[in-house]
Design a protein that fits this description.
heterotetramer, A: 359 residues, alpha/beta, Rossmann fold, 2 domains, two-stranded antiparallel sheet, 12% strand, globular, B: 326 residues, seven-stranded mixed beta sheet, 37% helix, binds thiamine diphosphate, binds magnesium ion
Chain lengths: 359, 326, 326, 359
C-alpha cells in the first residue's frame, strides 16, 4: 500500500514536576531569570486572586465562579507570549492570561457578581480583547474572524483563542481551525486540556490519543506541551505566534494540565472523580515546579515568596473593596446597550421600567 | 408517599419510563455519574448503565443529531441541553429533521424524541444561563413545545412527552425546580399534551401564563382576591399545538385577559395568544389584552434580573389597567 | 438609467458600499467566482479581490462566528447563508454574540454585521430551499430583521443595513428576485430601517405584509378596487424593531386589518402585529383581525407549494370576511 | 523533543485509469468475476439512470436534479459492500448506492419532481435507510445515532454515512466521527471527495493534504482510496464494515473522485472551472476503467454492453412512465404527516384548505 501522508505529534517539556530541567536548549526568554521571576510572580498572584474569588463566593459576595486553580502555567504562558496588539478570545477561566493583558481583578469579580460591566475591560490591551465566552467554543470563531480581519487589513497581529478539552469536541473549534488552515490565518488555538469537562473525563470526549492531533484535520502545525511547565507553554506559543505573524498561518497547541478545583463553585467534583487522581495532580503543580527551578537558580526564596504574597493580598483586598463599593447599575442600563440607537418601542418600555422602579 | 420537587418529578418520570420501556435512553452532557448539573438524571446511570444514560462529548449539535438518528431507528431518546441558552446548536437538527422527518418521508421514519432543557431566569446564574427562548420552537410545525409548572405536571407531562410519537421540546423552569414539594404518585400516569390547565377559577379577568410565571400569577390572583377581584389562572403547559379553546372559553367568560411570560415581549408566544383573542374573541373582550413580559432586551445579569422578570406588582398593575376599562 | 431587478439591486448596493467603505467584506459559500447561487455577488470578487469577497468552507457556524469576530474587530462583514433553510447553524453565534455583544460589553465591542439569506418559497426549489423562518429572529433583542420587497427598497435597505452599527438579518424574497425591474439610481442613498412603507393608500381595510407577499397584496388591492373596495397596503419591511405607529395609524383609519405572511400561522410574526392591534387599537377595530399565512405545516415540496402560499384568492376572501362584519 | 503520537494515511488503488491492475493481492470479492460483472452492470445502469434524470429536467419534467456522473464506482462500491440490515444515511446524489439497496428510479424522480413520496422508499433494505439529506452533513449524525442504537441493542449492524469534500468542513461531520470514536460506534463515514462543493474547490475547504486525515482528529482508522476504482472502494468499505460489525469501532474512508457534471441542473460549472480539468478527469472515468479490466479478463464485451444498456433504457423508460403517471397528492397530504395525531387547530386549517381547493 502506498502512503498518502504521515504525521507526528511532538511533546514539549522543559521542567519536570520537581522543577528539574530536562532539556538543555532553554529558549532565550527562559535564560532571562528576571523575566522568569516576573512570570512566576504573576502565577502566584493569579493563584492568590483565585483563592480570593472562591472565598468571596463562599461568603455570598459573588455568584457562581469558575476557578483557574492549576492552570496558572498554561494561562500565564499564553498571555505573556502575546504582543499587546494581538487579540485574545478566552473562554471563562483564563485569568492568568487576562491579568497579564490588563484585566483587573475587580472586573472579574464584577462579572461573576452578576454585572455586565465586568465585561467592559478598561485597560489596554485587554480592552480590545473579547470578553469571557460562556457558550463553549464560540470564541474560537471570533479569534478566526479577528485573524481574518488582520489578514485583510495587512496588520501583523495574531488572534489567540483558548478552549478546553471538552470544548474541543464542539464543531466551532473544528470550524475555526479549518478556516484558519484553509486561509492561512494568523490564529493560535490553544487547547487547555485539564482532563475534565465538568464531570466528563477526557476519554469520553474523544477516542483521540492526543488532542493536539485535531490540528492534523485542519492541516496545520500542532504540538502537545506540558501545560504545567510555563517554559514549554511559552515556547510553543512564541513559535506559533511568530509563524502566524510572519504569514505562515495558524497552529494548534495542546497544553496538558489538570483542573485542581471544582468546575465552578456550583460544582462538587467529589461526586465524579477520585481523590487519588487529584492528589497525584497536585504533585505536578505548575507553581511549585517553577518555584523549585527559580530557587535552584538562586533567584527566588521563601522571603521573597512571603513578601510577594503579602503584596498580592493587599492588591486583591484593594480590588475586592473597589468591587464591593460599586453600586448596581441604574434600571435604564437594562435597555441602553441593546442598540446603538434606542428604538421607540424600547424607549417606552424603558420609561415604564424606570417608572415602576420609582414606585 | 413522599413529597417531591419539580426536578425530582423529572427524575421520577425518567426512571419510570426507562424501567418500563427499554427503548428509552437519556443522553447529554454530565447526565451520567454527575446526574446532570441540576441532578435531573441523578442515579439513572447507576440503574440503567452507561449506554442508556450516556455522557456525550461536549457538542449540542452532536447530541441533537444522534438523537434524531436513534429515534428514527426505533429508540426513544431523551436528550438534554444543559441550559436553554445552549440549545441553539441543536436548531438545525430539530427544525430540519426532528420536526419534519415524518412529513418528509410520508410517515416512513419518525422521531419520537424529547429535547429537555432547564429554562429561564431567576436563579442568579451566570451569563447565558437564564434564557427564555421557547419562541424559537413555536413557529416550527411538527414540534410540541411543553413547559411544566408543578411537580405533578412535570411528571405527567414528561411521561406523555416520552411516549408521544413525535418530537417534544420539554422546557423546565429552573427557577421553580426546588421551589416547593407535592405528592406525585409514581404510577406512570401521563397527562395530556393537548390541553391548557385551568389552575384557578375566576370571573373578572383571565391570567394566561406558563412555566415559572405560573407561580407569580397564582400569587397575584391571591392578592387580587383580597381586593375582591376574581382572577382565573391558566397554565398553558403545552404551547404548541395550542389548546386555544380553553383560553377562549375563559376569556369569553371574564372579558379580560392578561398574558404573562418571561421571554421578551415582541414576538414572544404571548403574541400568538393575544392574536387569537383578537381574531376569535374580539366581541367578548371588554378591554384590550395586556401582556406582562420580559422587556425587549437581553435578560440582564443577575444583579438586575429581578427587575426584568414579570413580578406580582407588574401583573397586578396590568390587571388593574384592564379592569379600569369599562 | 438602467432598470434592475431586486437581485441586481442587492449586487448594486454591495458594490456601492464596498467601493466606499474598505471595511465592508462579503463572505459565504460560492460568493466568489460563482457570484452566489443566485448571482447576488456577481462580479464582486473580480472587483474587490479574494479576501474581501471570500469563499468560505462549507460551514454556516464558521461563517457566522467569523463574521462576529471580524465585526468586533472593526470590519463590516456581510455574510450570506445560501438559503434561509441553512441558517440554523448560525443561530448560536447570532443569538449569543451578534445580537448581544454590545449589551454584554456595555458597548465596548459591537457587531456591525449583516446576515443575508434568500428567503421563502414559490420557485419550485428542492427540499429545504423554501423556508420562511424570519420568526426565529424576531424575538431576539438586539437584532434588526429586514425584508425588502422591491428593487429600490432592496438597494436602500441593504445600504442602511450595512451602515447600521448593529447586526441586521436581511432576508431576500427569492420568489421576486427577478420578478420585475425598476429604476434604482446608484446614488448610495439608504432607506430608513425604522419605518413601515405605505405602498398604497386606502380607506376600507389595511393589508399588512412583507417580502414576497407584498406583490400578492398589491394585486389583491387592485382586484378589490374593481369591486369598489379601497385597501391600504403596508410593507412592514423592518419587522423588528417594529414601526407599529404606521400600522396603528392605518388601522385606526380603516378599522379593518388583514395580515399576510408566508411563514406558518402559529407564532409567526403576524401574531405580534395582531397582538399589538388588540392591545392598542382595540376600539378602532370594526372587525376581528385576520391572518392569511402559510399553514401550520412544513411548506410542501414544489408540486404542492402554491397551495400553501397565501394567494390573491385567500387574501381576498379574508378581506371580504372582515368587511362582512359591520 | 519526544514524540507523543505518529500517524500514517494509506492510499489504496487496484486499478489504474486504464483498467490495469496495479496490485496482485486482489480481495476475494474481486476474484469473483461474475460478481464484478454485476457491480459493473449497476455502475452502467446508474449512469443510464442519471442521464435520463438530466434529460427529464431539461425537458421540464423534473425540478432541480443533482447528478451522480463520475461517482459510480464510489457509490456502487459503498452500497454493494453493505449488508441488508445495515443503514445508509446519504446526502443527495448517492443513487448508485441506493439503487443497490432497493431505491427505485421512480422514487428518485418523484423526489426531485417536488413530491415527498419520493422519500418514502418502498423496498427493503432502503426502506429503513435515511432519505436524502439536503442540509449538508446532518446525515452523519443520523448515522452515528443509528450506530449508537445498534450498540445499545447489541445488534450486529453498521451505519454508513456519505459526505462530500465540502460537507466534511461542517461541524456535524466532525461531531459524528468524534462521538463514534469516543464510543466505538459501528459507523463508517465515507467522504466522497469529488473536488468541488458547487463552485468551491477542495483547497478552499481546508488546508489538509488529505481529507482522510480528518479521521485522525477522532482517533479512528482512516484511509484514502481511489474513488474511481470500485475494487479499492469496496475493499476499504468491506474492511471498515467488518471492523465495525466486530465491535472494533468506526472508520473514515476518503474516496477520491471527480464530479464530472454540474453541481445540479441549476448550476453551470463552466462559470468556475476550466475545461482541461474536466477533460483530464474523464480520462479517469470509473466506468471505462472497470470495463477495460473486465474485457481484459474476457468476461465483458461490446455486445454485452449494448444489450445491458438496452435493458437499462427499457428499465428507465418504465420508471419514467410510472413517475409521470403519478398524480399529485391530495391537498390533505400537506397536513397529514405533520403529527401522528392531528391537532384540532391543524384539522381546521386542513378543512379550510380542502374547501378552498374545491372552489
Ligand atoms: C454550548 C455550551 N454547552 C454547554 C455548556 C455548559 N458547560 C459549561 S463549562 C462546560 C464544560 C467545559 O469543559 P472544558 O471545555 O474542558 O473546559 P474547562 O471547564 O475544563 O476549562 C460545560 C458543559 C456551555 N457553557 N456552553
Ligand atoms: C447546511 C447547508 N448549507 C449549504 C447548502 C447548499 N449546498 C448544497 S450542496 C453544496 C455543496 C456540497 O458540496 P460537497 O459536500 O462537496 O458535496 P457534492 O455536492 O460535491 O457531492 C452546498 C453548499 C446546503 N444544502 N446545506
Ligand atoms: Mg476541561
Ligand atoms: Mg464535492
Amino acid at each position: 500500500m502506498s502512503i498518502a501522508a504521515t504525521f507526528e505529534i511532538q511533546y514539549l517539556q522543559y521542567l519536570d514536576p520537581e522543577g528539574k530541567q530536562v532539556r538543555d536548549d532553554l529558549p532565550a526568554f527562559a535564560e532571562d531569570t528576571e523575566h522568569m521571576v516576573e512570570l512566576y510572580k504573576l502565577m502566584v498572584s493569579t493563584r492568590v486572586f483565585d483563592a480570593k474569588s472562591v472565598a468571596l463566593q463562599r461568603t455570598g459576595k459573588l455568584g457562581t465562579y469558575a476557578s483557574c486553580l492549576g492552570h496558572e502555567a498554561a494561562h500565564v504562558g499564553i498571555g505573556s507570549a502575546m504582543a499587546a496588539e494581538d487579540v485574545l478570545a478566552p473562554s471563562y477561566r483564563e485569568y492568568g492570561a487576562q491579568l497579564y493583558r490588563g484585566v483587573q481583578p475587580r472586573e472579574v469579580y464584577t462579572y461573576w457578581g452578576g454585572d455586565e460591566r465586568g465585561n467592559d475591560y478598561q485597560n489596554e490591551p485587554a480592552r480590545h480583547d473579547f470578553p469571557w465566552s460562556v457558550p463553549i467554543a464560540t470564541q474560537c470563531l471570533h479569534a478566526a474572524g479577528s485573524a481574518l480581519a488582520f489578514k485583510i487589513r495587512e496588520e501583523k497581529r495574531v488572534a489567540v483563542c483558548t478552549i478546553g478539552d471538552g470544548g474541543s469536541s464542539k464543531g466551532d473549534f473544528y470550524g475555526a481551525i479549518n478556516i484558519a488552515g484553509a486561509q492561512k490565518l494568523p490564529l493560535v488555538a490553544v487547547i487547555v486540556n485539564n482532563q475534565w469537562a465538568i464531570s466528563v473525563p477526557r476519554h469520553i470526549q474523544t477516542g483521540a490519543e492526543t488532542l493536539a492531533q485535531k490540528g492534523i484535520a485542519a492541516g496545520i502545525p500542532t504540538i502537545q506541551v506540558d501545560g504545567n511547565d510555563i517554559i514549554a507553554v511559552r515556547k510553543a506559543m512564541g513559535d506559533a505566534l511568530e509563524r502566524a505573524r510572519n504569514g505562515e498561518g495558524p497552529s494548534v497547541i495542546e497544553a496538558v494540565t489538570y483542573r485542581l478545583g471544582d468546575h465552578t463553585t456550583a460544582d462538587d467534583a467529589r461526586r465524579y472523580r477520585g481523590e487519588d487522581e487529584v492528589k497525584d495532580a497536585w504533585t505536578k503543580d505548575p507553581v511549585v515546579r517553577l518555584r523549585a527551578w527559580l530557587e535552584a537558580k538562586g533567584v527566588w526564596n521563601e522571603e521573597k515568596e512571603e513578601a510577594w504574597k503579602a503584596e498580592c493580598d493587599e492588591w486583591m483586598d484593594n480590588e475586592v473593596n473597589a468591587y464591593l463599593e460599586n453600586k448596581a447599575q441604574p434600571t435604564s442600563a437594562i435597555f441602553d446597550y441593546t442598540f446603538a440607537e434606542m428604538p421607540e418601542d424600547l424607549a417606552r418600555q424603558r420609561e415604564q421600567a424606570i417608572e415602576l422602579d420609582r414606585q | 408517599m413522599a413529597q417531591i420537587t419539580l426536578i425530582e418529578a423529572v427524575t421520577q418520570a425518567l426512571a419510570y419510563e426507562m424501567q418500563h420501556d427499554q427503548s428509552v435512553v437519556v443522553l447529554g452532557e454530565d447526565v451520567g455519574v454527575n446526574g446532570g448539573v441540576f441532578r435531573a438524571t441523578q442515579g439513572l446511570q447507576k440503574k440503567f448503565g452507561e449506554l442508556r444514560v450516556l455522557d456525550t462529548p461536549l457538542d449540542e449539535t452532536t447530541i441533537a443529531g444522534v438523537t434524531v438518528g436513534m429515534a428514527a431507528q426505533g429508540m426513544k431518546p431523551v436528550a438534554e441541553a444543559q441550559f436553554e441558552g445552549f440549545i441553539y446548536p441543536m436548531m438545525e437538527q430539530i427544525a430540519c429533521h426532528a420536526a419534519r422527518l415524518r412529513n418528509r418521508t410520508r410517515g416512513r421514519l419518525t422521531v419520537p424524541a424529547v429535547f429537555r432543557a432547564p429554562w429561564g431566569g431567576g436563579i442568579r446564574a451566570p451569563e447565558h444561563h437564564s434564557e427564555a427562548n421557547e419562541h424559537l420552537f413555536t413557529n416550527i410545525p411538527g414540534l410540541r413545545v411543553v413547559m411544566p409548572s408543578s411537580p405533578a405536571r412535570a411528571y405527567g407531562l414528561l411521561l406523555a412527552a416520552i411516549r408521544d410519537p413525535d418530537p417534544v421540546m420539554f422546557f423546565e423552569p429552573k427557577r421553580i425546580y426546588r421551589q416547593y414539594k407535592e405528592e406525585v404518585p409514581d404510577d406512570g400516569e401521563a397527562l395530556p399534551l393537548d390541553v391548557c390547565f385551568v389552575l384557578r377559577d375566576g370571573t373578572d379577568v383571565t391570567l394566561v401564563t406558563w412555566g415559572a410565571q405560573v407561580k407569580e400569577c397564582l400569587e397575584t390572583a391571591d392578592a387580587l382576591a383580597e381586593e375582591g377581584i376574581s382572577a382565573e389562572v391558566i397554565d398553558v403547559a403545552t404551547l404548541t399545538p395550542l389548546d386555544f379553546d380553553t383560553i377562549a372559553e375563559s376569556v369569553s367568560k371574564t372579558g379580560r385577559c392578561v398574558i404573562v411570560h418571561e421571554a421578551p415581549k415582541t414576538a414572544g408566544f404571548g403574541a400568538e395568544i393575544a392574536a387569537r383573542l383578537a381574531e376569535e374573541c374580539l366581541y367578548d373582550l371588554l378591554a384590550p389584552v395586556q401582556r406582562v413580559t420580559g422587556y425587549d432586551t437581553h435578560i440582564p445579569l443577575f444583579r438586575q434580573e429581578m427587575k426584568y422578570l414579570p413580578s406580582v406588582e407588574r401583573i397586578s398593575a396590568a390587571v388593574h389597567k384592564t379592569l379600569a376599562v369599562s
